[in-house]
Amino acid sequence: MDSTSETSQTFEKSKNIERRFLEQKSRGVSGLDLVLSLQSDLAKLYEDISMLLRKKICLSDYDELHRILNKWDSIYSYYGLDFGNIKIEKYRSYDPEFLAKNSFKKYIRGVVIKCGMHKTVTVLVQRKVTHHPTGKQIPRNTKYLVHDPYSSCKIGDEVLAYETRPISKRKNHAFFRKIYQ
Fold this sequence. Notes:
Blueprint: H1 3-26, H2 31-37, H3 39-53, H4 59-78, H5 96-103, E1 107-117, E2 120-130, E3 137-147, E4 158-163, E5 171-178
Parallel strand pairs: 3-5
Antiparallel strand pairs: 1-2, 1-4, 2-3, 4-5
Helix pairs in contact: 1-3, 3-4
């Protein structure tokens, strides 16, 4: 079976699970009960997506699979459950940093240290600067506000963000992708 048919089947599974979730939610079932009732289907979906992400697939499918994972992960984390992290091998042709270098002129790589604002996270970027008189390496930190439209970042996530037009007074970077190691 080729990866395009597997990908389309996985998208169809995700749509079916989401449709059942919304139908039951419209009937008044609590969100936690919904997530727990769909847990086995979501575990199978998680396994399918993790297998697909290890294969070479086109970039749009790769992004769509990550969007699906982020959506269900955010629903799980809202109720205090753990959906899990998918580890992506370093030999992947769609390395996030490689994509960021080729797609954007300027990007930052840092760790999320605060995510209490709506659609905004604070990212700490650490770098080392040479002190010219002594030649020693001095650590420097910079905090950036990053636009996260789906609120998919959590504290401790390593992320890539790219520079955009000013979104607000201090926010001029947008979330690109999490880095899984």
